[in-house]
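S.,

Sequence below, as promised.
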Amino acid sequence: MTKLAIRFARSHGSYNAGEVAALEAEIALALIAKGVAAKHTKQPAVSGTTSANSSDLDGRSAELDAREAAVAAREAAMDAAATVTADFDKSGNLYAKQVAQEATAAAVATYEAAQETTDAAEDAAPVDDTGLPTQGK
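The prediction came back faster than expected:
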């Protein structure tokens, strides 16, 4: 959907005179035709079709594989811990419970490390400039 930036000449709905908004093209053109708004000098960048960068897709695929591996490792550790805990309940062996707790802690650490990697990758993503003026300027 293409958006069109308009500057309101008079108040309309929640918009006051002089405010700038990027609205769907159909709505913006209707408001311009009514004389409520005029086309703004700066317009949002037209992206056309969204194209995916091959390296971006490869990076996201690798990230997804890492997350899936971390979840699988965590589930395996939890299954092992459940089995060991069940053995502990039957035999009363304290060592088995300790092994189960260590396995669970290792699985949680692996999962948290994968989550930190994912968070770091999301934080590094660039923010696109829309071309519209920022609020208050």
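The first strand starts at residue 3 and ends at 8.

Coffee later?
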